[in-house]
Design a protein that fits this description.
The complex is a heterodimer. By secondary structure, chain A is mainly α. Chain A has one domain. Chain A has eleven helices and no strands. Chain B is mainly α. Helices cover 78% and strands 0% of the residues of chain B. Chain B has twelve helices and no strands. In chain B, helix 6 crosses helix 8 and helix 8 runs parallel beside helix 12. The longest helix of chain B has 32 residues. The interface between A and B is large, with 34 and 37 residues.
Chain lengths: 261, 256
């Protein structure tokens, strides 16, 4: 019962306390307007280069933009405790680490899902993509799984944030790499083999592919393999992220560096 | 002469200071490389290899804009956080002459982006590196940086009125990349975007660089960059004076 309270209430409280994005003055420019323009930029580059359809770029970039809340929020809900000078209190508390850390991930996933679905809807209407109404629930589900999967990567970044100082740089770099490697803008089979190997093992790649397939008329059953792969990747990254957090916590205790980067 | 010395010393100081920032350097170098790589793949798949230098220059300019936007947009706020804003205002030279070198430095740091994308494209994507008019290119580059730096002055002096300057910077990054035709031909965009692009220095700067590098006559674009720079300087001057007067009247210099 206590673990559930820590997971749900603790997670939400930490999220509300640490993420200043919840202010509309930051949320709207960063998570509402920016993804729309990122998508439009790539739609127009695609038109300029004469490759792929608008739908390809709209779906790819909308799902990929879920990585901004996943990476930045997830990193900050852990690392932000240090800036607030509260990390030591959190880590000396008897609270179970699993609900403590993973509870913070839940609002991140919801936020990423909202951002991604909203930008997909708006840009879809703006550029006029043709996605059947019946496909939207399945696309929403795919985006939810992709958001979960990418939050696992965010958990790894959060763990790194316990050791390094400039996590914003790290998150920006990873966001950029996801932009390249997930196939959001370039079909994976255009990449050299080593890039394809990386693409297959990172969050979002399979989610983007599944969302595109669903938009083209595939059923949820048709893309169940892709969704399962995306979910499995999410589980792996979450487990690695959780273990990394425990290792970093242990290292911070040993070095007496919990409050300092 | 003392004005020039002040500008030069301020520019050198801020370039060195920004170069020590891991955030700035990584963002200036890696982000444009990533965008350039995506664009190279896309244009290559579109079977238009002749446009790769066009893409490389555009991606480099994206980095110059980002570093100007984030550097200049938060310039006064940073001085405030570091506790140096009062000194910058209180020194005998006008505040404008203290801030201009900083905004010019943020644009200059963007040259890392241009260099990085050109080298990246040349090494990994076989982007041709022949510059058709080297002299014009050598003139267009500093003029473009000057134009963007002075646009940065307008950003610095107006963003200060908005508490979350970083969010405003986030808001303007992609739209300006799009509206100034850095990777997309302006003719593909809706007609109403045209007038917006005309008042933005990156539009003329990238056109000047492309005309000089690929083919054409870059001098009209270079002239437009200089003209817009002069306009930005006037706007920045009045905006900064307004900010300074308000801050003194309300005694809010050190607080947001």
């Amino acid at each position: 019962m206590t673990s559930l309270r820590i997971f749900f209430i603790g997670g939400l409280t930490a999220y509300r306390g640490l993420i200043n994005w919840l202010s509309p003055w930051i949320f709207v420019p960063t998570l509402v307007v920016s993804p729309i323009f990122q998508i439009l930029l790539f739609v127009y580059i695609g038109r300029s280069a004469g490759v792929q359809s608008d739908e390809f770029f709209v779906i790819g970039n909308a799902v990929q933009y879920a990585s901004i809340p996943c990476l930045f929020s997830m990193t900050h809900v852990i690392e932000g405790e240090r800036y607030q000078q509260t990390l030591a209190y959190i880590l000396v508390s008897p609270a179970g680490r699993l609900p403590l850390f993973l509870g913070r991930a839940l609002p991140v996933i919801v936020n990423a899902w909202v951002v991604s679905v909203f930008s997909l809807l708006v840009t879809g209407l703006l550029v006029g993509i043709d996605v059947p109404l019946s496909a939207w629930p399945a696309i929403a589900l795919v985006i939810l799984v992709a958001s979960f999967s990418c939050t696992g990567l965010g958990l790894i970044c959060a763990a790194i944030g316990l050791r390094v100082r400039q996590t914003a740089v790290l998150d920006n770099v990873i966001f950029g790499l996801l932009l390249v490697f997930t196939g959001a803008n370039v079909p994976i089979d255009e990449f050299p083999g080593w890039m394809q190997a990386i693409s297959d093992r990172i969050p979002l790649t399979h989610g983007i592919e599944a969302a595109r397939d669903v938009a083209e008329g595939a059923s949820l059953a048709d893309v169940s393999g892709l969704i399962a792969t995306e979910f499995t990747i999410g589980i792996v990254y979450t487990v690695v992220g959780y273990l990394a957090l425990r290792v970093m916590e242990y290292a911070s205790r040993q070095r007496a560096s919990i409050q300092i980067a | 002469m003392s004005v020039l010395r002040l500008l030069w010393a301020g520019w050198i100081f801020h370039v060195k200071s920004l170069t020590l920032s891991g955030f700035f350097i990584l963002t200036s170098v890696l982000q444009p490389i990533i965008f350039a790589s995506v664009a190279y793949f896309m244009f290559r798949a579109g079977a238009r290899p002749g446009t790769l230098l066009y893409v490389a220059l555009g991606a480099g300019m994206m980095g110059i804009w980002s570093s100007t936007l984030f550097g200049s947009g938060g310039a006064i706020q940073w001085q405030r956080w570091q506790g140096t804003l009062e000194y910058c205002i209180a020194v005998p030279p006008p505040f404008l002459l203290v801030i201009v070198p900083l905004t010019l430095a943020t644009a200059s740091i963007g040259l890392y982006s241009l260099t990085a994308t050109l080298l990246w494209g040349w090494i990994f994507f076989d982007v041709p590196m022949e510059i058709t008019h080297p002299l014009a290119f050598a003139v267009a580059l500093p003029v473009t940086v000057l134009g963007l730096g002075l646009l940065g002055l307008v950003l610095a002096s107006t963003f200060i009125l908005y508490r979350n300057a970083n969010a405003l910077s986030n808001l303007l990054e992609f739209p300006v990349w799009l509206a100034t035709g850095l990777l997309v031909s302006l003719s593909l965009l809706p007609a109403w975007v045209g007038p917006i692009s005309w008042v933005l220095a990156p539009t003329w700067g990238i056109n000047a660089l492309r005309e000089a590098a690929i083919a054409g006559n870059p001098w009209p674009e270079i002239g437009m960059c200089l003209l817009l720079g002069a306009v930005y300087l006037v706007i920045g001057h009045f905006a900064l004076r307004h900010f300074e007067r308000l801050a003194r009247e309300r005694a809010t210099l050190a607080i947001a």
